[in-house]
Amino acid sequence: MSKDSASARVPSDCKSCALRPMVFYTTGTPEEAAGLAKLRRGVRVLPARATIYREGDLATEFHTLFDGWAFRYKLIADGRRQILSFLLPGDSISYQLMRSDRLRFSVQALTEVSLCVFEREALSRHVAERPVLTSRLDHLAAQEIAAADDRLTDLGQRSAHERVASLILQLYLRLQQRNLADEDSFVSPLRQQHIGDALGLTSVHVSRVLKDLRAEGLIGVDHERLILRDQPMLRKLSGIGDRGLDEQFH
Amino acid sequence: MSKDSASARVPSDCKSCALRPMVFYTTGTPEEAAGLAKLRRGVRVLPARATIYREGDLATEFHTLFDGWAFRYKLIADGRRQILSFLLPGDSISYQLMRSDRLRFSVQALTEVSLCVFEREALSRHVAERPVLTSRLDHLAAQEIAAADDRLTDLGQRSAHERVASLILQLYLRLQQRNLADEDSFVSPLRQQHIGDALGLTSVHVSRVLKDLRAEGLIGVDHERLILRDQPMLRKLSGIGDRGLDEQFH
DNA sequence: CGTCGTGTTGAACTCAGTCAAGCCAGGTGG
DNA sequence: CCACCTGGCTTGACTGAGTTCAACACGACG
User: Fold this and answer.
1) Which domains, ranges and CATH numbers included, belong to chain A?
2) What strand order describes the sheet that includes B225-228?
3) CA-based nearest residue in chain A for residue B241
């Protein structure tokens, strides 16, 4: 897993792609997948920290994250950074590119990543011609809005402890959906700075909060592995369960 | 303007509706508007503070806010409230109802409101059959995500003063688009509690921040009227202008 | 072996929250 | 017409969550 190893997995063909159920632009039938493969311009592997997209740039390509982690973010005048969301395998950059050729945020790789590359216009036409895909796209857009509302509520109303618990739990649940989580833990490339920038906290404070959560037996940290030691308590702390993520992830 | 007066305006017919350019479900041609009018089930007037929609309820109707203000919000377990956005004349509740029959937030009237009521399924079909409208809907959904990202950045990275300036400026710009703002001021039904719940602040602190902004000559407050006394400075404070709302509002 | 990136810890500080009292305008009822 | 209530705003004193600054620890890497 070190930097120089060819660690990033690369998809062979769309038909056997394990992520097929996650991505929006195929109905999931093998025939569809075959047609889809023709639209794919290729695969691109980028190192950790690479800028995948810069806010405002003209985008002629559409990317799906096949392997690795990335994040969407905005910079404001004095250099402060807000991380809008973390992107996991199967996520796209971004549905909005089906309608617009510019985005109002940037995207950076957290780990080495491999991306499936499509020609934006061609894929957009492909989807527009298929009502099933269009409606799937709409569904994902609605989910994205709902997720944004949830995060807004986190930042506006919840304490640092609640936010950190919420983020860890959400990442775990999303990874679990993708079969990328273990029994009660997952490997995360996030630095405390990333967690802070996502939650509106300083990395120093994130360190203290994680310490507290460890002390209270809610989580464990082993190198890059995050262990959820007390999921019920984490759910309670993060306010998930009142109305769960269950709905958010159809 | 008192409680008992019949203050809420009510639309006569869709053809002459001044809001036509704002709403998504018509192309704007008079013929379209005539057909659209047939889908309209009627008009409903509700008093201030009325609950227009409650999180999770089954929605058979789709509403467009014709007159008055409302807001979208979420409640969390211990009673804290996050206001997700303010709804102004021409806004819908909500695009998401074109795809789903339940929403994950509630909506409440801030003033007396009048709503155009549509049958959800019928309108959804109407829109689905017209590619122009579908793409318009997508565009609005994308705008909504972009707006959510902006607000996330506000809550995560900006100080109380910056957030309040940002909210005031954004409301002003949105009202201006609808010809509901005066030269450099607008009338707002917001209580400081609403501003606080939208920005993740207490109403007490909002009061202090507004006092500071008044003292610095950035804004003026006269009864329910908010006056933008120094727009350039407000823009600078709120970080709008680095990349403006210009784009956000096509 | 030194450097770099990351995390941890302590001490001082500050922005925003809490609690509580008082104020003011408008509306109600005697 | 005045007395009283009510909801919203203001202000002060105090508290506290989270920040800032700085030093140090530790492992990975060259």
Assistant:
1) 20-151 (2.60.120.10), 159-247 (1.10.10.10)
2) B185-187, B225-228, B219-222
3) A77
